[in-house]
Amino acid sequence: MGCCQTRCNRSRAAWQTACSTSPHRRRRATWPTAAANAEATMKPVHQMRRRLGRYLLPLAVLLSLLHPTTGAAMITTDQVFADPQVAQLANAAQDGDLGRLQQLIKAGARMKFVGREGMTVTHYALRARRHAPQVMELLLKAGADPVSMLSNGNNVPHYAVSRDNADPEVVKVLLAHGIGPNWFPPPSQRYQKMSLLQEAIMGRNLPVVKLLVERGADINYVHPISGSALHYALDGIDFYIPAYLVEAGIDLKLLDGTAPEITNPLARRQTAIEYFCETEGGRRGHDPLPEIAAGWRVFTAALAKRGVKMPCGL
What we know:
Elements: H1 2-19, H2 23-30, H3 34-40, H4 44-63, H5 77-80, H6 84-95, H7 98-106, H8 121-125, H9 132-141, H10 156-162, H11 168-176, H12 196-202, H13 206-214, H14 229-233, H15 240-247, H16 272-279, H17 290-305
């Protein structure tokens, strides 16, 4: 998962400890529990594993609606949708059956019907086995919801850009149906959402990153806890996305931890390069993986074109 996931967990910890305005949370931050003290002494990788356990179980429950789990029964569309016609629509969407989709649309299938955990047919369009852009286009033209918020706050646009091997053509369809390159979901219980660009970076989807920037995504948007797109991109694994951001003109002086609620005097604000050099720089020795070394050369060359020298090694 790399540094990006570590950064997300670091953000949650920073927010819970330094930013909460709840008197109870302030008290917990002032007098930490034994468990909190134990976690504070752990190595970062062990902290990450413990925190991941807290968040992955609820996520696994949601993902089971789309992906079968080994040893467990697959949740079928008729278990997700109480309306049998909508269940058929979802099946046709994930099968990429354009003819069947058109039949069900003409028959009046309810496009915006909401099933378990907030699922709608547009979620199934994202995993179409074939003709994915055409499937999404048919559903959205017929009135399906391009946002489709899940009960945990996740949504179709963010999943579309961040999933493994995200399809730029599907993203183009969403952009044509009201999801702008700087779209943010409605407010939720989460403190702040990442931008679409940052979500695409988290998924390491360079073609989608390029598409969003070309369509006008704010390359200098700063998440108030985790920082800029470059903070997310410098994960120590793929340096081609950081290189592209540098070439596209991202501001290299953008800082993380800019939320005004962060009052901890020990909190530090760092640029993406400073953060990388502190947490990742120089750890790959003199013989890194060839693909990582190749990306690093492209990244440092992009910096050199802007008169910037990387202050640390790979």
